[in-house]
Design goal:
Blueprint (H helix, E strand, L loop, with lengths): L1 E6 L36 H5 L2 H18 L11 E3 L4 H14 L6 E10 L2 E8 L6 H21 L6 H15 L1 E2 L10 H6 L2 E2 L1 H14 L4 E5 L4 E7 L2 E6 L4 E4 L1 H11 L2 E5 L2 E5 L37 H11 L7 H7 L9 H12 L8
Parallel strand pairs: 5-6
Antiparallel strand pairs: 1-3, 2-4, 3-4, 7-8, 8-9, 9-10, 11-12
Helix pairs in contact: 2-3, 5-7, 9-11
Protein backbone atom coordinates (compact mmCIF):
# COMPACT_ATOMS: atom_id res chain seq x y z
CA UNK A 1 0.00 0.00 0.00
CA UNK A 2 1.27 3.45 -0.94
CA UNK A 3 0.21 6.39 1.24
CA UNK A 4 0.81 10.08 0.74
CA UNK A 5 0.15 13.23 2.78
CA UNK A 6 0.07 16.47 0.86
CA UNK A 7 -1.50 19.88 0.31
CA UNK A 8 -4.05 21.08 -2.16
CA UNK A 9 -3.10 24.35 -3.81
CA UNK A 10 -3.03 27.07 -1.17
CA UNK A 11 -3.46 30.40 -2.88
CA UNK A 12 -1.85 33.39 -1.26
CA UNK A 13 -1.61 35.86 -4.16
CA UNK A 14 1.99 36.93 -4.62
CA UNK A 15 1.23 40.62 -4.66
CA UNK A 16 -1.04 42.80 -2.57
CA UNK A 17 -4.27 44.43 -3.79
CA UNK A 18 -4.07 47.68 -5.69
CA UNK A 19 -5.72 49.83 -3.03
CA UNK A 20 -5.90 50.11 0.73
CA UNK A 21 -8.96 48.41 2.20
CA UNK A 22 -10.65 49.43 5.44
CA UNK A 23 -11.97 47.05 8.07
CA UNK A 24 -15.72 47.54 8.60
CA UNK A 25 -17.59 47.69 11.83
CA UNK A 26 -18.66 44.27 13.09
CA UNK A 27 -21.80 43.00 11.37
CA UNK A 28 -24.70 41.89 13.53
CA UNK A 29 -24.92 38.12 13.99
CA UNK A 30 -28.45 36.86 14.35
CA UNK A 31 -28.14 33.09 14.09
CA UNK A 32 -31.50 31.40 13.92
CA UNK A 33 -32.31 28.45 16.13
CA UNK A 34 -33.89 26.62 13.23
CA UNK A 35 -31.92 24.50 10.77
CA UNK A 36 -30.48 26.61 7.95
CA UNK A 37 -28.09 25.85 5.13
CA UNK A 38 -26.01 27.84 2.70
CA UNK A 39 -27.74 28.60 -0.58
CA UNK A 40 -25.12 28.12 -3.26
CA UNK A 41 -25.06 26.44 -6.62
CA UNK A 42 -23.26 26.79 -9.94
CA UNK A 43 -23.55 23.69 -12.08
CA UNK A 44 -20.99 24.62 -14.75
CA UNK A 45 -18.09 22.60 -13.33
CA UNK A 46 -20.16 19.51 -12.60
CA UNK A 47 -21.87 19.54 -15.99
CA UNK A 48 -18.49 19.64 -17.74
CA UNK A 49 -17.08 16.56 -15.96
CA UNK A 50 -16.81 13.06 -17.39
CA UNK A 51 -18.88 10.26 -15.86
CA UNK A 52 -15.84 8.96 -13.93
CA UNK A 53 -15.09 12.44 -12.61
CA UNK A 54 -18.73 12.93 -11.63
CA UNK A 55 -18.61 9.70 -9.64
CA UNK A 56 -15.69 10.95 -7.52
CA UNK A 57 -17.21 14.45 -7.30
CA UNK A 58 -20.47 12.93 -6.03
CA UNK A 59 -18.59 10.91 -3.41
CA UNK A 60 -16.75 14.03 -2.24
CA UNK A 61 -20.02 15.95 -2.05
CA UNK A 62 -21.77 13.19 -0.10
CA UNK A 63 -18.85 12.95 2.35
CA UNK A 64 -18.72 16.71 2.88
CA UNK A 65 -22.48 16.94 3.37
CA UNK A 66 -22.26 14.18 5.97
CA UNK A 67 -19.68 16.18 7.92
CA UNK A 68 -21.50 19.46 7.37
CA UNK A 69 -24.77 18.16 8.80
CA UNK A 70 -23.20 16.40 11.77
CA UNK A 71 -22.40 17.52 15.32
CA UNK A 72 -19.89 14.69 15.68
CA UNK A 73 -16.10 15.06 15.65
CA UNK A 74 -14.31 14.59 12.32
CA UNK A 75 -10.60 14.97 11.61
CA UNK A 76 -11.09 14.08 7.93
CA UNK A 77 -14.09 13.65 5.69
CA UNK A 78 -15.19 10.06 4.99
CA UNK A 79 -12.79 8.79 2.34
CA UNK A 80 -13.72 8.30 -1.32
CA UNK A 81 -12.49 5.42 -3.45
CA UNK A 82 -12.13 4.96 -7.19
CA UNK A 83 -10.53 2.63 -9.72
CA UNK A 84 -11.32 4.93 -12.66
CA UNK A 85 -9.10 8.00 -12.00
CA UNK A 86 -5.38 8.34 -11.36
CA UNK A 87 -4.01 9.91 -8.18
CA UNK A 88 -3.17 13.16 -9.99
CA UNK A 89 -6.62 13.29 -11.56
CA UNK A 90 -8.28 12.88 -8.16
CA UNK A 91 -6.12 15.61 -6.61
CA UNK A 92 -6.92 17.99 -9.48
CA UNK A 93 -10.64 17.24 -9.26
CA UNK A 94 -10.66 17.65 -5.48
CA UNK A 95 -8.90 21.02 -5.76
CA UNK A 96 -11.59 22.27 -8.12
CA UNK A 97 -14.28 20.72 -5.89
CA UNK A 98 -13.09 22.71 -2.86
CA UNK A 99 -13.41 25.97 -4.78
CA UNK A 100 -16.75 24.83 -6.21
CA UNK A 101 -18.16 24.46 -2.68
CA UNK A 102 -17.07 27.40 -0.51
CA UNK A 103 -19.82 26.53 1.96
CA UNK A 104 -17.57 23.77 3.33
CA UNK A 105 -15.50 26.38 5.15
CA UNK A 106 -13.90 23.79 7.43
CA UNK A 107 -11.90 22.01 4.67
CA UNK A 108 -8.13 22.61 4.75
CA UNK A 109 -5.76 22.39 1.76
CA UNK A 110 -4.37 19.18 3.28
CA UNK A 111 -5.32 15.74 2.03
CA UNK A 112 -4.37 12.07 2.32
CA UNK A 113 -4.19 9.68 -0.62
CA UNK A 114 -3.29 6.00 -0.74
CA UNK A 115 -3.44 3.16 -3.25
CA UNK A 116 -3.97 -0.59 -3.05
CA UNK A 117 -3.59 -2.23 -6.41
CA UNK A 118 -5.80 -0.31 -8.82
CA UNK A 119 -7.95 1.18 -6.08
CA UNK A 120 -7.17 4.72 -4.87
CA UNK A 121 -8.52 6.18 -1.62
CA UNK A 122 -8.64 9.92 -0.97
CA UNK A 123 -9.73 12.12 1.92
CA UNK A 124 -9.44 15.76 3.01
CA UNK A 125 -8.66 17.17 6.45
CA UNK A 126 -10.60 19.63 8.58
CA UNK A 127 -9.16 22.69 10.27
CA UNK A 128 -8.42 21.74 13.92
CA UNK A 129 -10.83 24.36 15.32
CA UNK A 130 -13.69 22.90 13.24
CA UNK A 131 -13.12 19.21 13.94
CA UNK A 132 -15.47 19.44 16.91
CA UNK A 133 -19.01 19.16 15.59
CA UNK A 134 -20.57 21.71 17.91
CA UNK A 135 -17.94 24.30 17.05
CA UNK A 136 -18.47 23.56 13.36
CA UNK A 137 -22.24 23.99 13.62
CA UNK A 138 -21.98 27.18 15.67
CA UNK A 139 -19.58 28.74 13.16
CA UNK A 140 -21.80 27.62 10.29
CA UNK A 141 -24.77 29.47 11.77
CA UNK A 142 -22.66 32.59 12.21
CA UNK A 143 -21.47 32.48 8.62
CA UNK A 144 -24.97 31.95 7.27
CA UNK A 145 -26.19 34.96 9.23
CA UNK A 146 -23.33 37.09 7.90
CA UNK A 147 -24.05 35.86 4.39
CA UNK A 148 -27.65 36.99 4.83
CA UNK A 149 -26.45 40.46 5.83
CA UNK A 150 -24.88 40.84 2.38
CA UNK A 151 -27.91 39.40 0.61
CA UNK A 152 -30.13 41.91 2.43
CA UNK A 153 -27.93 44.73 1.16
CA UNK A 154 -28.57 43.81 -2.49
CA UNK A 155 -32.25 42.92 -2.11
CA UNK A 156 -33.45 46.23 -3.58
CA UNK A 157 -31.24 46.13 -6.68
CA UNK A 158 -33.15 45.28 -9.84
CA UNK A 159 -30.41 43.87 -12.06
CA UNK A 160 -27.82 41.12 -11.66
CA UNK A 161 -25.23 43.62 -12.89
CA UNK A 162 -25.95 45.96 -9.97
CA UNK A 163 -25.91 43.11 -7.45
CA UNK A 164 -22.65 41.65 -8.75
CA UNK A 165 -20.91 45.03 -8.91
CA UNK A 166 -22.08 46.01 -5.42
CA UNK A 167 -20.85 42.75 -3.89
CA UNK A 168 -17.44 43.06 -5.53
CA UNK A 169 -16.98 46.63 -4.27
CA UNK A 170 -18.39 45.91 -0.82
CA UNK A 171 -16.13 42.91 -0.20
CA UNK A 172 -13.10 45.03 -1.10
CA UNK A 173 -14.27 47.66 1.37
CA UNK A 174 -15.13 45.23 4.16
CA UNK A 175 -12.20 42.80 4.02
CA UNK A 176 -8.47 43.44 4.37
CA UNK A 177 -6.02 41.55 2.17
CA UNK A 178 -3.69 39.41 4.30
CA UNK A 179 -3.40 36.52 6.71
CA UNK A 180 -5.70 36.19 9.70
CA UNK A 181 -4.82 34.90 13.14
CA UNK A 182 -6.28 31.40 12.91
CA UNK A 183 -4.63 30.03 9.73
CA UNK A 184 -7.94 29.80 7.86
CA UNK A 185 -7.09 32.23 5.05
CA UNK A 186 -8.17 29.70 2.38
CA UNK A 187 -11.70 29.69 3.85
CA UNK A 188 -14.68 32.03 3.69
CA UNK A 189 -14.49 32.01 7.50
CA UNK A 190 -11.37 34.20 7.31
CA UNK A 191 -13.24 36.77 5.22
CA UNK A 192 -16.48 36.81 7.18
CA UNK A 193 -15.21 36.34 10.74
CA UNK A 194 -11.74 37.94 10.67
CA UNK A 195 -12.35 40.47 7.86
CA UNK A 196 -8.95 39.49 6.47
CA UNK A 197 -8.23 37.00 3.69
CA UNK A 198 -6.23 36.26 0.54
CA UNK A 199 -7.42 35.69 -3.02
CA UNK A 200 -8.86 32.25 -2.17
CA UNK A 201 -11.11 33.71 0.52
CA UNK A 202 -12.22 36.62 -1.67
CA UNK A 203 -13.11 34.41 -4.62
CA UNK A 204 -14.88 31.76 -2.53
CA UNK A 205 -17.00 34.34 -0.71
CA UNK A 206 -17.89 36.21 -3.90
CA UNK A 207 -18.89 32.91 -5.49
CA UNK A 208 -21.03 31.99 -2.49
CA UNK A 209 -22.85 35.34 -2.33
CA UNK A 210 -23.50 35.63 -6.06
CA UNK A 211 -24.82 32.07 -6.37
CA UNK A 212 -27.03 32.65 -3.33
CA UNK A 213 -28.51 35.68 -5.11
CA UNK A 214 -29.18 33.70 -8.30
CA UNK A 215 -26.11 34.77 -10.30
CA UNK A 216 -23.94 31.96 -11.67
CA UNK A 217 -20.35 32.34 -10.53
CA UNK A 218 -17.46 29.87 -10.35
CA UNK A 219 -13.79 30.18 -9.40
CA UNK A 220 -10.77 29.77 -11.65
CA UNK A 221 -7.32 28.98 -10.29
CA UNK A 222 -3.81 29.62 -11.58
CA UNK A 223 -0.56 28.56 -9.96
CA UNK A 224 -0.59 31.53 -7.60
CA UNK A 225 -4.01 33.13 -7.76
CA UNK A 226 -7.76 32.62 -7.61
CA UNK A 227 -10.50 34.77 -9.12
CA UNK A 228 -14.06 34.38 -10.42
CA UNK A 229 -15.91 34.06 -13.67
CA UNK A 230 -19.51 35.22 -13.78
CA UNK A 231 -22.40 34.44 -16.12
CA UNK A 232 -24.13 37.71 -16.89
CA UNK A 233 -26.55 38.57 -19.69
CA UNK A 234 -25.71 35.43 -21.66
CA UNK A 235 -21.90 35.60 -21.49
CA UNK A 236 -19.11 34.74 -19.03
CA UNK A 237 -16.72 37.41 -17.72
CA UNK A 238 -13.83 37.57 -15.26
CA UNK A 239 -14.21 39.22 -11.85
CA UNK A 240 -11.24 39.60 -9.50
CA UNK A 241 -12.23 40.95 -6.09
CA UNK A 242 -8.60 41.05 -4.92
CA UNK A 243 -7.67 43.53 -7.66
CA UNK A 244 -11.04 45.18 -8.22
CA UNK A 245 -11.44 43.91 -11.79
CA UNK A 246 -15.09 43.69 -12.85
CA UNK A 247 -16.36 42.04 -16.05
CA UNK A 248 -13.03 41.64 -17.85
CA UNK A 249 -12.49 39.62 -21.02
CA UNK A 250 -9.47 37.34 -21.55
CA UNK A 251 -7.59 39.98 -23.52
CA UNK A 252 -8.33 42.68 -20.95
CA UNK A 253 -7.05 40.42 -18.15
CA UNK A 254 -3.87 39.70 -20.10
CA UNK A 255 -3.33 43.42 -20.61
CA UNK A 256 -3.66 43.89 -16.86
CA UNK A 257 -1.19 41.07 -16.17
CA UNK A 258 1.28 42.30 -18.77
CA UNK A 259 1.21 45.74 -17.18
CA UNK A 260 2.29 44.08 -13.92
CA UNK A 261 4.86 41.80 -15.56
CA UNK A 262 4.94 38.05 -15.98
CA UNK A 263 5.46 35.83 -12.97
CA UNK A 264 8.09 33.09 -13.03
CA UNK A 265 8.05 29.90 -11.00
CA UNK A 266 9.21 26.29 -11.15
CA UNK A 267 6.80 23.61 -12.33
CA UNK A 268 7.93 19.97 -12.36
CA UNK A 269 11.56 21.03 -12.23
CA UNK A 270 11.33 23.57 -15.05
CA UNK A 271 11.17 27.36 -14.83
CA UNK A 272 7.87 28.60 -16.25
CA UNK A 273 6.61 32.14 -16.83
CA UNK A 274 2.89 32.66 -16.76
CA UNK A 275 0.15 35.24 -16.46
CA UNK A 276 -1.30 35.63 -12.98
CA UNK A 277 -4.75 34.84 -14.42
CA UNK A 278 -3.69 31.90 -16.60
CA UNK A 279 -5.81 28.91 -15.43
CA UNK A 280 -3.68 26.00 -14.22
CA UNK A 281 -4.25 23.52 -17.05
CA UNK A 282 -4.00 20.25 -15.12
CA UNK A 283 -6.84 21.38 -12.86
CA UNK A 284 -9.14 22.00 -15.81
CA UNK A 285 -9.17 18.93 -18.02
CA UNK A 286 -12.76 19.93 -18.83
CA UNK A 287 -13.67 23.00 -20.86
CA UNK A 288 -13.67 26.38 -19.13
CA UNK A 289 -16.35 28.99 -19.89
CA UNK A 290 -15.77 31.18 -22.93
CA UNK A 291 -14.60 34.49 -21.45
CA UNK A 292 -13.42 36.10 -24.68
CA UNK A 293 -16.23 38.67 -24.87
CA UNK A 294 -15.79 42.25 -23.71
CA UNK A 295 -18.65 43.63 -21.62
CA UNK A 296 -20.62 46.58 -22.92
CA UNK A 297 -22.50 48.24 -20.08
CA UNK A 298 -26.05 49.27 -21.05
CA UNK A 299 -26.72 52.99 -21.18
CA UNK A 300 -28.72 54.65 -18.44
CA UNK A 301 -32.43 54.85 -19.10
CA UNK A 302 -33.01 58.18 -20.87
CA UNK A 303 -29.37 58.63 -21.95
CA UNK A 304 -29.96 59.42 -25.63
CA UNK A 305 -26.50 60.98 -26.04
CA UNK A 306 -24.59 58.10 -24.44
CA UNK A 307 -22.62 60.48 -22.21
CA UNK A 308 -23.54 58.74 -18.93
CA UNK A 309 -26.06 61.31 -17.70
CA UNK A 310 -29.68 62.33 -18.33
CA UNK A 311 -30.25 66.03 -19.06
CA UNK A 312 -31.69 68.50 -21.56
CA UNK A 313 -29.17 67.37 -24.20
CA UNK A 314 -30.96 64.02 -24.33
CA UNK A 315 -34.28 65.73 -25.06
CA UNK A 316 -32.62 67.78 -27.82
CA UNK A 317 -31.02 64.65 -29.29
CA UNK A 318 -34.35 62.80 -29.40
CA UNK A 319 -36.03 65.76 -31.12
CA UNK A 320 -33.20 65.91 -33.68
CA UNK A 321 -33.60 62.18 -34.30
CA UNK A 322 -37.35 62.63 -34.83
CA UNK A 323 -36.61 65.33 -37.43
CA UNK A 324 -34.01 63.13 -39.12
CA UNK A 325 -31.13 65.41 -38.15
CA UNK A 326 -29.48 62.84 -35.84
CA UNK A 327 -29.16 59.06 -35.82
CA UNK A 328 -29.32 57.00 -32.63
CA UNK A 329 -27.28 53.85 -32.18
CA UNK A 330 -29.02 50.62 -31.19
CA UNK A 331 -27.89 51.12 -27.57
CA UNK A 332 -29.05 54.75 -27.49
CA UNK A 333 -32.44 53.80 -28.90
CA UNK A 334 -32.78 51.00 -26.36
CA UNK A 335 -32.12 53.52 -23.58
CA UNK A 336 -35.00 55.81 -24.58
CA UNK A 337 -37.55 53.43 -26.14
CA UNK A 338 -39.96 53.52 -23.19
CA UNK A 339 -43.07 52.67 -25.20
CA UNK A 340 -41.38 49.86 -27.14
CA UNK A 341 -42.24 51.13 -30.64
CA UNK A 342 -38.65 50.89 -31.84
CA UNK A 343 -38.18 54.57 -32.69
CA UNK A 344 -37.68 57.93 -30.95
CA UNK A 345 -40.82 60.03 -30.54
CA UNK A 346 -42.13 63.12 -28.76
CA UNK A 347 -43.74 61.05 -25.99
CA UNK A 348 -40.31 59.80 -24.92
CA UNK A 349 -38.80 63.29 -25.12
CA UNK A 350 -41.61 64.55 -22.87
CA UNK A 351 -41.07 61.70 -20.39
CA UNK A 352 -37.38 62.58 -20.05
CA UNK A 353 -38.23 66.28 -19.62
CA UNK A 354 -40.62 65.37 -16.79
CA UNK A 355 -37.82 63.37 -15.16
CA UNK A 356 -35.34 66.27 -15.49
CA UNK A 357 -37.67 68.78 -13.82
CA UNK A 358 -38.71 66.30 -11.10
CA UNK A 359 -42.29 65.54 -12.08
CA UNK A 360 -41.46 61.81 -12.18
CA UNK A 361 -38.85 60.05 -10.07
CA UNK A 362 -37.61 57.29 -12.39
CA UNK A 363 -37.25 56.24 -16.00
CA UNK A 364 -37.69 52.73 -17.38
CA UNK A 365 -36.44 51.79 -20.81
Amino acid sequence: MKKMFALLIGLVCLSAPLTEIAVPSQMMISASAEEVTFNTNCSYVYDALSDNQKDVYNQLLESCRQVDASSETYETIPSVTTRKLTSSEIVSLATVFVFDHPEFFWITPEYEISSTGRSITYTMKLYPQYQDGEARQETKQQLISLEQEYLNQIADYDSDYEKAEYLMKQLRQDIVFGYGENNIDQSIASALLEHKTVCAGYSKLYELLCNASGIEVMTEISLNHAWNVIHLEGNWYHVDVTYGLFLYSDSELHEFDESKGLYTTEVDGQEVSFYMHEPYGTLYSFALPDTSQSYSKPLLAGDATGDGSVDILDVITINQAILGKATLTEEQLKAIDFNGNGKPDSEEALTIMKYIVGLISSLTA
